[in-house]
Specification:
The complex is a heterodimer of chains A (376) and B (272). Chain A is an alpha+beta fold and 376 residues long. Chain A folds into 2 domains: 222 residues, P-loop containing nucleotide triphosphate hydrolases (Rossmann fold, 3-Layer(aba) Sandwich); 145 residues, Beta Barrel (OB fold (Dihydrolipoamide Acetyltransferase, E2P)), CATH 2.40.50. In chain A, strands 6-7-8-3-9-10 form a 6-stranded mixed β-sheet, sandwiched between helices. In chain A, strands 13-12-11-14-20 form a 5-stranded antiparallel β-sheet. In chain A, strand 4 and strand 5 form a beta hairpin. The radius of gyration of chain A is 25 Å and the shape is elongated. With 272 residues, chain B is mostly helical. Chain B has one domain: MetI-like (MetI-like fold, Orthogonal Bundle). Chain B is 75% helix and 0% strand. The longest helix of chain B is centred in the first third of the chain and has 30 residues. The chains are: A alpha+beta (376), B mainly alpha (272). Chains A and B meet through strand 6 and helix 2 of A and helix 8 and helix 9 of B.
Chain lengths: 376, 272
């Protein structure tokens, strides 16, 4: 993957009917990268994609493509193609003519069109479907036609707007793998929009977590999962236990009334922080197990619920001040007293005010409205 | 399922009583003489009225084509208005249809007649007066005026109901605005145009009041002919029924052709 910047959004702001959807957004996409814009509905991810595609004009800010400002360039003049959410296949054209649409506009000769269309259909596993009517295809097949129709034009960038949203789980997983393969093979830049965190983690080189028209965190899937920048990211990407705490010194954190070892440093003395602990990082120990003696400060709790989730059991462990979610391949009896063992490596510290976002406000309003009112 | 069957009985009866039975009666009349004996005479003598048939058919086709040429751009322009604009335009198009048909047509008489509004206006401008009343042109004008909404409405509905993402997809794949219309919007409105053609052609080919009021006696159409067989001086219910049957067949053929065009367009207008 080359490291040249291909697309840059510089202070992009957009509002619809006085509703601010994007707030001075900055984003840089490298050539050949698979970038996923991840966030809940209404976070501005689709609007960002539509601005890149040329279907919306930013109110302010600049959009650069290969170093050139393209704010006012119409979609047909951009070297970008889109796979639309509901495929948007032309119902009056057959599969072959849908795929050929862009090539014909460019005046490619009939022979070359035919050749490239059949190559593309082969690539998306639809060989011999040229003469089929698009309305006779299944959702998954329509999706493939939509992808073929876009990539046959060999754009620099492929935009994908929740393209797998309408497919069932199994098909979605298959298509995720196929899209990833396609990306590796074509060396095209993919910008993918989804609200499905698992999809984002599976496919992306870079995940951009968005909420309230802003970017909360941008990084590799591993970074986003292991080092979430704030409460919202930790909550949205994967399941997590988020506990308010305090850093008395480097590598020491206090939460739920106890001081623990951790690996994070660089915080101010006694800084208020949020602690993230992933459910799969909690090891449940029974009373009397040998390893308990090795620890002096183990959290103790009662199993409140235990649900079977397929690969693992999901349990809620009540510790008095906080209900932990824990995953384990072993089911525990409801009402059992358990000890929660957490490795210092798996205690992740997040700055509280790293991003002053609407979401944080909304989050607090939801969870502790009185405190918010008092501040105001 | 059984319950559904019982529920459909009244409607089946209704259809039998008011569609099938009358149709059988018309067919019986068409193939019999006034004594009730079987005959084909009604059809073989129809050649006498060939001129009327031809005039009706020609006028209906011209009216339908004129409605298409006027109606499509109008529907397109309407579809590009704001939501409020669309509603206002729709109401303005529908409003005259709520007015009595005869009244609307007599209004045209007062406009077109020799000392009517049009000629007053022309002479006011010192322009030569025109003699348009009692000509096929006046009948055609009255027909286009009355039937134009039937063309505009289906096309307008199809244009406004079009999935916006199809237009965006076309832009995305390299269409400029004119190409979007030619390659996507227009082909997708073809079925609605064909509906419009049927909606206009059928009443146009069997109209009778318009030709009577605006065409005088000289421009008799098939509708007038049929009326004459039942109510007028030439009382001959058998002949009237036979003419009606022929008209029905003509309309059936026309509808079949348009439907055929519709399915023919599927999946291949741009194949060339």
């Amino acid at each position: 993957m080359s490291k040249n910047e291909l697309i840059r959004l510089d202070g992009i702001t957009k509002s619809f009917n006085g509703n601010v959807v994007l707030k001075s957004l900055n984003l840089s996409v490298m050539d050949g990268e698979f970038v996923t814009l991840l966030g809940p509905s209404g976070c501005g991810k689709t609007t960002t994609l539509r601005i890149i595609g040329g279907f919306e004009m930013p109110d302010s800010g600049d959009l650069y493509f290969g170093g050139e400002r393209i704010n006012a360039l119409s979609p047909d003049k951009r070297n970008i193609n889109t796979v639309f959410q509901k495929y948007a296949l032309f119902p009056h054209l057959n599969v072959g003519e849908n795929v050929a649409f862009g090539l014909r506009l460019k005046g490619v000769s009939d022979r070359d069109v035919e050749k490239r269309v059949s190559e593309m259909l082969e690539l998306v596993d639809l060989s011999g479907f040229e003469r089929r009517s698009v309305t006779s295809l299944s959702g998954g097949q329509q999706q493939r036609v939509a992808i073929a129709r876009a990539i046959v034009n060999e754009p620099k960038v492929l935009l994908l707007d929740e393209p797998l949203g309408a497919l069932d789980l199994k098909l979605r997983k298959e298509m995720q793998v196929e899209l990833k393969k396609l990306h590796e093979r074509l060396k095209m830049t993919f910008i993918y929009v989804t609200h499905d965190q698992e999809e984002a983690l599976t496919m992306s080189d870079t995940i951009v977590v968005m909420n309230g028209g802003q970017i909360l965190q941008q990084g590799s899937p591993i970074d986003i999962y292991n080092e979430p920048a704030n409460r919202f990211v930790a909550d949205f990407v994967g399941e997590s236990n988020i506990i308010p705490g305090r850093m008395p010194e480097d590598c020491r954190v206090e939460f739920l009334g106890t001081v623990y070892d951790c690996v994070d440093r660089g915080f101010e003395k006694n800084e208020q922080i949020d602690v993230v602990i992933r459910p799969e990082d909690i090891v449940l120990l029974e009373e009397g197990e040998n390893s308990i003696q090795a620890h002096d400060r183990l959290l103790k709790g009662t199993v409140k619920t235990c649900l079977f989730k397929g690969v693992h059991y999901e349990m809620i462990i009540e510790t008095g001040d906080f209900d932990f979610i824990a995953h384990s391949t072993v089911a525990e009896k409801i009402g059992m007293q358990m000890y929660l063992d957490i490795d210092p490596d798996n205690i992740h510290i997040m700055k509280k005010s790293s991003l002053e976002t609407m979401t944080e406000m909304e989050y607090r309003l939801e969870h502790d409205p009185d405190a918010v009112m008092e501040e105001e | 399922m059984r319950g559904n069957k019982i529920a459909s009985v009244p409607y089946a009866l209704w259809l039998a009583l008011f569609t099938v039975v009358p149709l059988v009666i018309v067919l019986f009349y068409a193939f019999s003489d006034d004594a009730g004996a079987f005959t084909m005479d009604n059809f073989s003598y129809m050649g006498l009225y060939a001129v009327v048939f031809f005039r009706s058919f020609r006028l209906a086709v011209l009216c339908t084509v004129a409605c298409l040429i006027l109606g499509y751009p109008m529907a397109y322009a309407m579809s590009r208005l704001s939501k409020t604009g669309q509603t206002v335009a729709l109401i303005l198009i529908m409003l005259p249809m709520w007015m009595n048909f005869l009244l609307r047509t007599y209004a045209w008489l007062t406009i077109l007649e020799n000392n009517g509004l049009l000629n007053h206006f022309l002479s006011f401008l010192n322009l030569p007066e025109v003699n348009i009343i009692n000509t096929p042109a006046a009948v055609g004008l009255g027909m286009v005026y009355n039937y134009l909404p039937f063309m505009i409405l289906p096309i307008f509905t199809s244009l406004t109901g079009m999935d916006e993402s199809l237009i965006e997809a076309a832009r995305d794949l390299g269409c400029n605005e004119r190409q979007v219309f030619r390659k996507v919007v227009f082909p997708l409105t073809i079925p609605s145009m064909l509906s419009g053609l049927i909606f206009v052609f059928i009443p146009a080919v069997s109209t009778f009041v318009i030709s009577k009021i605006l065409g005088g006696g000289a421009n008799m159409l098939v509708g007038d002919l049929i009326e004459m067989q039942f109510l007028g001086g030439a009382y001959n219910a058998n002949m009237g029924a036979a003419i009606s049957v022929v008209m029905m067949v003509v309309i059936m053929i026309f509808t079949a052709i348009t439907n055929r065009l519709d399915s023919g367009e599927e999946g291949g207008v741009l194949m060339s």
